[in-house]
């Protein structure tokens, strides 16, 4: 499926506010509600829209510490990577995990309440994973840019 200009505009509107109504989108695109609804359903069906979410304010829910944890595995076999990824998927403190190229194997984005909770997390949960050879943490001092929007050209 190839996206046309209208599809991209609809995606932009939904990225900005996933609760925007079909009626509001129809007004902004100049289409009637039925074609807008059909386009959105087609975009969902074809996987352009994965899901709709609410983005929470970390401070207001008492999860003020964000850290990035670089991980190097002891074993670089396919099985070791798979086992590690399964175990990481079970840890709710990890909100994002990226397999990366370079001097480390994975970059984890971890969100917790405070430094004590982070220390407990790394000691009890990451420390329990035999696959980890080395880990290094970096702590977020302030957010310069934080968006979920992907530029559509």
Provide a descriptive summary of the structure in words.
- The chain has 153 residues and is of the alpha+beta class.
- It folds into two domains: 41 residues, Arc Repressor Mutant, subunit A, CATH 1.10.10; 75 residues, Alpha-Beta Plaits, CATH 3.30.70.
- Helix content is 37%, strand content 20%.
- The chain contains five helices and four strands.
- The chain has a four-stranded antiparallel β-sheet with strand order 2-3-1-4.
- Strand 2 and strand 3 form a beta hairpin.
- Helix 2 packs across helix 3.
- The model has no long low-confidence stretch (mean pLDDT 97).
What labels would you give this structure?
single chain, 153 residues, alpha+beta, Arc Repressor Mutant, subunit A, Alpha-Beta Plaits, 2 domains, four-stranded antiparallel beta sheet, 20% strand
CATH architecture of the largest domain: 2-Layer Sandwich
**What is the average per-residue confidence, as pLDDT, rounded to a whole number?**
97
Terminal residue distance: 16 Å
The name CATH uses for the topology of the largest domain is Alpha-Beta Plaits
Given the helix and strand composition, which structural class is it? alpha+beta
Number of strands: 4
Number of domains: 2
Percent strand: 15-25%
Helix content: 25-40%
Q: Provide the CATH superfamily of the largest domain.
A: Lrp/AsnC effector binding domain/regulation of amino acid metabolism (RAM) domain
Rg of Cα set: 20 Å
Shape, principal axes of CA atoms: elongated
Q: What's the tally of helices?
A: 5
